[in-house]
Design goal:
Elements (H helix, E strand, L loop, with lengths): L11 E6 L4 E6 L10 E6 L4 E4 L7 H7 L4 E5 L10 H6 L3 H11 L3 E5 L10 H12 L3 E4 L18
Parallel strand pairs: 4-5, 5-6, 6-7
Antiparallel strand pairs: 1-2, 2-3, 3-4
Helix pairs in contact: 3-4
């Protein structure tokens, strides 16, 4: 679908400032031109949170992720099992995501939008091991209502 007459096609790159916070936007890559997706970077005095939405490798997301305390990013498939080259451009595999987080200096990486590929005995453990060889930060498989610390996670004290 094309935008109507006079409509502005948004390409990301906006910045909004609030009272003690800033949000930056960037274009994500997810089956364009059919879907137009964005990523967001929230900066506060406490830390920086980046959310990619659905996205494959995208320069805008890479820019947002630089030095982030937390990056929440799609990890849709196990690397080298993508359905096609176009699919790999629009979604992210686990090793590509590990490289992105490592190269951007992300402290805490949260994988989201994972598929049933990861839900087999031992697969998540294997994926965590493989990603950890590249990405040295804290790695989380995202779940509903999960709380992710801006800093390093602190284990509960034994009673």
């Amino acid at each position: 679908m094309q935008p109507g007459p006079g409509a502005r096609r948004h390409l990301g790159g906006d910045t909004v400032h609030g009272n003690g916070w800033t949000i930056k936007t960037a274009t994500a890559e997810h089956f364009r031109p059919y879907l137009v997706c964005y990523g967001y970077r929230l900066e506060t005095p406490t830390g920086t949170f980046v959310y990619s939405g659905d996205s494959g490798p995208a320069p805008g997301i890479r820019e947002l992720a630089q030095g982030a305390d937390v990056l929440v990013h799609m990890c849709h498939y196990i690397s080298n099992t993508q359905l096609s080259a176009r699919f790999a451009e629009s979604c992210m595999g686990h090793m590509e995501l590990a490289r992105l987080a490592q190269e951007c200096g992300v402290r805490n990486l949260v994988t989201t939008h994972i598929t049933e590929q990861f839900d087999r005995p031992g697969v998540r453990e294997r994926v965590i091991g493989e990603m950890s060889r590249i990405y040295p930060g804290n790695l989380f498989f995202g779940e509903d209502l999960m709380e992710i610390p801006i800093g390093n996670p602190i284990p509960d004290k034994l009673m």
